[in-house]
Each structure stands twice: as structure tokens, then as C-alpha cells.
Design a protein that fits this description.
Blueprint lengths: L4 E3 H4 E3 L13 E2 L24 E3 L4 E4 L8 E3 L4 E3 L3 E6 L9 H5 L8 E3 L1
């Protein structure tokens, strides 16, 4: 049996982009919109004033890093702006199937930040 450990950083990268222009046309995602153990983003706000500047892009995984044990990680199906308490993670498609990333992020062993394959 072949077993090796892979760091999360080997298969994904934090997407660090900020909104420098108008935020009016972007949906807004806060921690309250991420549902524990649900990978589908089903709620967000539109047209509300906010102080958020962190951008995410379609296909990114939004991970609620506050109280990480709640396993809040959802896939964005659109471009938008999110809370600073959300880490935006982008899969490295040459290293992992992007569809697997939200499941991996929700695993309990993520605290050690390795993946055994």
C-alpha cells in the first residue's frame, strides 16, 4: 500500500484579492451564510452596504476560519465579496480535482494540515 502525506499548500493556495473599485455589483457572503458541513453556497446578500473588501471568484472554496470545528466550507458559484473571517481557497487543478477540495477542507484532520493519500 502506497501512503504519503501531502500538505494542503501543495494542492491549494489562498486566493488573496481585494476589491479596489465599486462593490455595488457584487454579492456579499458573511460567516452567517456558510452552513456547517454543507458545500453548496445557498445564501448571500445583494445591494447591502458593507465594509468587506476580500474578493472571491467562481469555483473558489470559502472557508469560515472562525470556529473552524463547525466545518463551514462552501464552493462559490459566482464572483463576490466576503468577510475577512472567511479564507478564500483556490485549488491547484494540476495537483487535485477542484471538486474534491471542499470535502478535504471539511475533514477533521485538517488541523494537522496534511492529507494522507
Amino acid at each position: 500500500m502506497w501512503v504519503s502525506k501531502v500538505l494542503l499548500g501543495d494542492v491549494a493556495v489562498e486566493h488573496k484579492e481585494t476589491c479596489k473599485g465599486s462593490k455595488d455589483d457584487y454579492p456579499i457572503v458573511g460567516l452567517e451564510h456558510l452552513i456547517p458541513e454543507e458545500i453548496t453556497l445557498t445564501a448571500w446578500n445583494e445591494g447591502r452596504k458593507n465594509t468587506f473588501t476580500k474578493m472571491f471568484r467562481k469555483g473558489n472554496v470559502l472557508f469560515g476560519r472562525r470556529r473552524a470545528y463547525l466545518k463551514k466550507a462552501a464552493v462559490a458559484h459566482f464572483d463576490g465579496i466576503c468577510s475577512g473571517d472567511i479564507t478564500v481557497i483556490e485549488a491547484k487543478p494540476d495537483r487535485i480535482l477542484p471538486e474534491l477540495l471542499p470535502f478535504i477542507i471539511q475533514k477533521e484532520w485538517l488541523a494537522v494540515r496534511t492529507i494522507t493519500i
